[in-house]
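Appendix B, Record 12. Input sequence as logged:
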Amino acid sequence: MRAALAALTLLCACATPAPPAPQTPDEATAVDSCGAARFIALIGAPADRIDPATLPPRTRILAPDMMVTQDFAPGRLNIIVGSDGRVGSLRCF
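Logged structural output:
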C-alpha cells in the first residue's frame, strides 16, 4: 500500500501542469477596467495638448516625479507622461 502511494506521489510530481485557459471577454475587459484602450492614440502625444474635457472623470495625468496617492481605483485612467513631456503609457489604477 505504501509503495503504491509513493508511486502515485512520484507520478503526480512529474505531471506537466495544464496550460492556462484562454481569457474570456469578461476577463479581457477587466484588464482594461478604465477604458484605456479608447485613448491609445494619446501615446506619444505631447501631454500639454491633452484636452481634459475629453477624458473620463477622475483621470490623472502623471508627470515624472509627481507625488501620487496610493489608493487603488481600477476604474481610474492614469496617463503616464515621460520626461520628454509626451504620453508614455496608459494604466488603470
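The longest strand covers residues 87-92.
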